[in-house]
Predict the 3D structure of the following.
Amino acid sequence: MKLKDETRILETMGKLTGPALRWYQENLRSFINWSDAEKALRDRFKEFTSDSQLMREFFYIYQEENQSVISFYENVIRKYRKSRQFITEQQVITVLQNGVKNSLKEYLIRNEKEIKKTEE
């Protein structure tokens, strides 16, 4: 194994945590070169999505043309649950308000005073 590959493999171990680190340490001896190590790691942990990527995805959820309000709401809540440690309830409300179709948004704005009266 080239020194460069060995260095990459060891540097990667220093950046991993939790289950990924344990898996990596257990399989370290089976890696012949960096390419093998990288492929094995990517294959084993395909589902990884970075926290910043989850947040970006969350803040750009919009109701699709043929999507019901309930389906849109459930989609927002499902994504919120994946990212709840980074997202506040107020941000969820903002995504729900900004993400609905314009027709519903206009209706909500027109009837906002009546909706607030009902809440009180």
Summary: Residues 3-44 form one domain.
